[in-house]
Each structure stands twice: as C-alpha cells, then as structure tokens.
Amino acid sequence: MLHIVIPVFNRLHFTRACLQSLRRQTHQAFRVIVVDDGSTDGTSEHLAQEFAEVEVLRSSGDLFWTATVNLGIRRALALGADRVMTLNNDVVAPPDFVEHMLLWSQRQPRALMGPLELDAATGKPVFGGELFSFLTHRTRSLLDILGPDQRTGLHPVTFLPGRGLLVPAEVFHTVGLFDEGRLPHYLADYDFTSQARRQGFPVYVNYATHLLTYPDESGQTQTRRHRSFRGYYQHLFGIRGGGNLANFSHFAIKNAPATYLPLFLLNGYVRRLVGYFLH
Predict the structure, then answer these.
(1) pLDDT in tens, 63-76
(2) In Å, how far from its chain's centre is CA 49?
(3) Is 107 exposed, middle or buried (0-12, 13-18, 19+ CB in 10 A)?
(4) What torsion, rounded to 10 degrees, do the Cα atoms 203, 91, 69, 153 define?
(5) CA-CA 20 to 30 A from 105: which of 82, 124, 169, 196?
(6) What digits encode the pLDDT tens for the residues 119-160?
(7) What is the pTM of this model?
(8) Of 13, 23, 12, 14, residue with least CA distance to 4
(9) Cα(first)–Cα(last) distance of the chain, in Å?
C-alpha cells in the first residue's frame, strides 16, 4: 500500500487544505503520516481532532526537513509500505492525483516519479522537471523543451524535488533514506533522486497528473524577498540556507562526475556567493 509522508512545521492552514484534498481522492487505498516537527500552532492537536484517519508523529523541532521525512519513511516501511510518497503540506492534490500517480507507477514499478506542478493562484505550470548538466552547471526546463502536444506521460529528468515524490520501497532498501547527516534541509531530495538514478532506478516527471503549489511560499523565496547581510549569511551558512556552501559541497562530491568536480564546485561557489543579490 502507498503511504504518504508529510513533514510539517506550523502553517496549519496549508496542512488542513492538503489533507482535505487527499480526502477527496478517487483512489483511497493509501495511508497518511504527518510528521510534526515541533509546531507551536496546535497542529498535532488539531489534526487529531479533525483527521482521525491520519497518523501524526511528533518530534522535538530540531530535525529539519530531511530527518523529519526520514522519520515518516521509517514508520511507513515498518507498516509494510510498497511505495512511499513525500508530500509538502503547502500543496493541493486534484481528486485524481493519487490514482494517476499509481497508474503510471504500475507501468514503471521501479521508477521514482514526481508530478507536473501548477501555480495554485494562476493554474500556470511552474515546474515540469529539469535536465541538468554537471559540466556546464546549466539547467534546462522541460517546460521550455516540450511542446504542448508532448506534455503527457512520463519524461526522464536528472533529479526531482520532494513535493509529491513517489518512491518504490525497493529504492529505499537499495539506496537508503535521505541523507540527513550531510544534507539536513535543502538538496536532500535532489541528492536522493540523483543517487537512485545513478543506481539504475528511472526518474520521471509524470505529466499525466499535477499538483497545485504556492511558489511564493518557499523558504528561499521568502528569504530573498527581504535581502540583508544577515540573510546573506544565513543563505550561505544557515541550515535552511538555499545557498548553503557545505550542503552544496556534499551534493557535488556525491553526484558530480569526478572529471567535472573541480569546475562544478568552483562554478557553484561563485553562483551562491553572488546569486543571492542577483535573483
């Protein structure tokens, strides 16, 4: 059975909307595990009252994204999950989301999959997968590559984010869990899917289904909206910093081909040092 793992920290209104959308799924053969990492807005108590079908795990508030997700994955695997989906709480799933993800997963049982993402406010596509070059450090968006008539079915990508990421249990048994030791918050999802792809598991974006997301609510967007030298320091060295230099170094060493690694590291450091003020 599919188990959906949702890490949360506050933002109860997003969590409620996400869980309500899961209640409306046409396919209901799944279980939901919410991992509440120290919320102070009464999230756990409210979910216990309104969503009795959801299992809520509570942690102390110092796990950050990666360890929080791993806690839920361990619980899902202990319950016998054959597939696990990681899902952010600030998404809304259309009624056929789970049905279509599982349909395509049955066709490609060893594949990791993520959905096409639409802006919840406008309905416009905001993420449709990427092809990344470790040589040039450049990303090509499939939304720019694929024509309207090609935006259907599965398309291979280099890696995927954890928003709606469907993972067969076999992948965890082969690759392990997300790397909470070296990548406690950002890049753990990209690292995990990259590692899985390198070990022979296909990685696809599924254009047959989509999630509604809120791009302006991401941590990196919020940080860059109010730029400051303190924010710059957090960007480069904070655990939640999108440009964290240590995290990038670990990701690069684990995933970049050895012949490209020096140039990839240099390129990445420069982008992170100056990019905070340019985007």
Answers:
(1) 899 999 999 999 99
(2) 27
(3) exposed
(4) -10
(5) 124
(6) 999 999 999 999 999 999 999 999 999 998 999 999 999 999
(7) 0.93
(8) 23
(9) 42
Supply 41's token pair: 């807005």
Residue with tokens 């655990």: 239
Question: Shortest CA distance to 90 belongs to which of 63, 120, 115?
Answer: 120
Q: Give the gyration radius of the chain's Cα atoms.
A: 18
- Per DSSP, the three-state class of 95 is coil
Contact indicator for 80, 16 with CB cutoff of 8 Å? no
Per residue in 157-201, pLDDT (tens digit) is 999 999 999 999 999 999 999 999 999 989 999 999 999 999 999
The helix-helix angle for 188-198 and 64-78 (nearest 10°) equals 50
Residue from 86, 120, 92, 84 nearest 17 by CA: 92
Tokens of 54: 């959801």
Structure tokens, 215:
């791009």
On the 0-12 / 13-18 / 19+ scale of CB atoms within 10 A, 143 is middle
Domains of the chain: 2-213 (3.90.550.10), 221-275 (no CATH)
CA 232/CA 224 separation, integer angstroms? 9
